[in-house]
Amino acid sequence: MSLFYPNNLLLDFLNSYNPAKFPSNQCPCGNGIQNSVHLITNCVLISGYKRNYCENFLEYYEFHSIGSIAVQQYLLISWSKYPSFIDMCCSLVEESVSHLISGVTL
Predict the structure, then answer these.
(1) Rounded to an integer, what distance in angstroms lies between the CA atom of residue 60 and that of residue 8?
(2) Taking the model in full, what pTM does it have?
(3) Which of 15, 40, 61, 78 could form an SS bridge with 22, CB 3.0 to 4.6 Å?
């Protein structure tokens, strides 16, 4: 679940932390800034089936009606109490592992 905390290994945080080393915050999919919200809502590197599963989960909890990215990120953390959400996130990360940074030296 650490990907859903503000300090994570997604490019949005890494770019803000060290722009010289990480000059872009864009996801390799080319469809937006790589952050936790993008990963589960818009990243086209995730299979359509898994994106649909995520979308159904998010619609049930009216996620998209919240305009603030900060609030959305907080909700993602708070949903870690739901086993189905944890399973969904693990599945997304497993599928995305080749597109995600697994370790850095800052």
Answers:
(1) 26
(2) 0.75
(3) 15
